[in-house]
Design brief:
membrane; CitT-rel; Anion permease; 0% strand; mainly alpha; SLC13A/DASS; single chain; 2 domains; transmembrane
């Protein structure tokens, strides 16, 4: 593995140097454009083979632009002062408070208590809990780390043995609810903001919290309904009689009464979501709402300065900032214009019609996921490849971000989805079999395309398709 990384890194650097300094600059492209193209090729190789941490690769890419005078420092690092970066930081802060206080655990358990204690009931409970909790925590790893141990407890209380189809189904219900349904809400994961930030400014303004939810509503319904029946069909036991809810009751008893910190966190998050929904009416940027919320949580002692430094994934935040910078810089150096001419024969047919796009683009992303493991890296590479064509699309580029965010979350092989690995590690890989993962992922891949197709009429009504 180390040799693979070393060899890949050397090849990446050599290719970058050759493109930047030894290949004649093509007609229509400046030397600055060649430098950015070279750095992009090198960075992609580093990201695909995980040569060094992704955020370090991103920082080196931005720094290379300044060192080689492709663009100046303010242009290269402009995205780090954008509202997108600050809402990611604020959103992760709110999520840290919800996790630390125990609020998320309490919400999930109380929802589970309302449903029958059998496979179907608890699958529906995990779907419901995950969907409700998703917009509160913009990070997949804490949600899967928290939800899968709950799923293990439910599976054991229902009498399912480990690594059976039934335990696999309960595990996947937790993953489906808490991870897959992230695509329904802008605030449910930092990668949604990252993909949004790569779009042109006009397209970004389309994707407010409320618009994102409405644009994804048909997909959300399809993903929940079809997903529920898929898991029941694949994994439910023949005799699905209700069992005791003792596990859930015991967990709630251990939590005790709702704490002061939980109450404060719940109020702040509820207010934040309302303000995000009404962002265009209130004229208060979503980033400001999130940062005010985090500030109140720190002032009231729910979060400490140590929590801010340890509970926020700063390497992810930095990585997102570096990849979002690509879109702006590629346009500044006219690289997008040149790439549009080069790639037009291949990409234009796929983007000629919105229905063709929502079928073809997910399939391309599925194939890419066999090579590029990182969800954010995959989505970023796809959006960057399509960036030159945004000005010629017959539909709003915001649709591309939605298609990407639903399609990168596949788990045909466990290595394809890092949050899945987190969930599996949280239960010591006791629950799901590899065959169960593959079957459910294949089902999701089909459901995803059906859901996106049913979104198109809504997009047309909204005037963006």
């Amino acid at each position: 593995m180390k040799h693979t990384k070393l060899i890949s890194g050397i090849i990446g650097i050599i290719l970058g140097v050759v493109i930047a300094f030894f290949i004649p600059t093509p007609v229509g492209l400046s030397h600055s454009g060649m430098v950015v193209l070279a750095s992009l090729v090198t960075a992609n190789i580093f990201w695909i083979f995980n040569v060094i941490p992704s955020f370090v690769t991103g920082l080196l890419m931005l720094s290379s632009w300044v060192i080689l005078r492709a663009v100046d420092f303010p242009t290269a690092f402009n995205l780090f002062s954008s509202t997108t970066m600050w809402i990611i930081i604020g959103g992760l802060g709110l999520g840290a408070a919800a996790t630390k206080s125990g609020l998320i655990n309490r919400i999930a358990l109380n929802i589970m208590k309302l449903f029958p204690a059998n496979f179907g009931g608890q699958t529906l409970a995990l779907f419901t809990a995950g969907t409700i909790i998703s917009p509160m925590i913009p990070s997949a790893h804490p949600k899967t780390a928290m939800s899968t141990p709950l799923a293990l407890g439910i599976s054991e209380s229902l009498g399912y043995k480990n690594k059976t189809k039934e335990s696999s189904g309960i595990f996947l219900a937790a993953i489906w609810g808490f991870l897959v349904m992230e695509a329904s809400f802008l605030s449910a994961t930092a990668q949604n903001y990252a993909f949004k930030g790569l779009l042109p400014q006009k397209a970004q303004s389309t994707l407010s919290w409320g618009n994102w939810f409405m644009m994804m509503l048909p997909w959300t319904v399809v993903a929940l309904v079809f997903g529920f029946f898929l898991l029941k069909f694949l994994f439910a036991p023949k005799d699905d009689k209700p069992a005791s809810k003792e596990f859930i009751s015991k967990q709630l008893q251990e939590l005790g009464p709702m704490s002061r910190n939980e109450k404060i966190t719940a109020i702040i998050i509820l207010i934040a979501i309302v303000f995000w929904i009404l962002e265009s009416t209130l004229k208060i940027p979503a980033a400001v709402t999130a940062l005010c919320g985090v500030s109140i949580l720190v002032a009231t002692g729910v979060l400490t300065p140590q929590d801010i430094s340890k509970r926020l994934s700063w390497n992810t935040i930095i990585f997102i900032g570096t990849v979002m910078a690509l879109g702006n810089v590629m346009q500044v150096v006219k690289l997008t214009t040149w790439l549009r001419v080069i790639l037009k024969p291949v990409i234009s047919p796929m983007l000629s019609n919105v229905y063709i796009t929502v079928i073809a683009l997910p399939i391309i992303i599925y194939l890419c996921k066999f090579v590029v493991v990182s969800l954010i890296s995959t989505g970023t590479l796809i959006i960057i490849a399509l960036l030159p064509f945004f000005s010629t699309l017959s539909f709003n580029p915001a649709i591309i971000a939605l298609v990407v965010t639903t399609s990168v979350n596949i788990w045909m092989l466990s290595y394809m989805d890092a949050p899945f690995l987190t969930g599996m590690a949280a239960v010591n890989d006791k629950m799901a079999t590899r065959v169960a993962l593959a079957k459910s992922s294949l089902g999701y891949m089909v459901i995803n395309i059906i859901g996106l197709l049913l979104c198109v009429p809504i997009w047309k009504l909204m005037g963006i398709a």
